[in-house]
Amino acid sequence: MLFLIPIFVIIAIILAIDFFYFSDTTLSEEAPNKELSQKIEEQNATQNYLNRYIKK
């Protein structure tokens, strides 16, 4: 049973490093806004193309 303690300690250290250094909570909140703005830009570009070349 004593040989399991170092394994648990190593796993706890790895999980702590993963949690603190690689947390992406701010990225996940900003990602939908970026996707939404990109879709709006694509719609505007498509509409501008249609207005300029097709409807004339």
Secondary-structure topology with pairs:
Elements: H1 4-21, H2 25-54
In short:
The chain is 86% helix and 0% strand. The chain contains 2 helices and no strands. The N and C termini lie far apart (81 Å).
Structure write-up:
With 56 residues, the protein is mainly alpha-helical. It has a domain at 26-56. The chain is 86% helix and 0% strand. The protein contains two helices and no strands. It has helices spanning 4-21, 25-54. The radius of gyration is 25 Å and the shape is rod-shaped. The termini are far apart. The model has no long low-confidence stretch (mean pLDDT 79).
How does the overall form come out from the CA principal axes? rod-shaped
**Total of helices:** 2
SSE succession: HH
Q: Report mean pLDDT, rounded to a whole number.
A: 79
List keywords for this structure.
56 residues, mainly alpha, 86% helix, rod-shaped
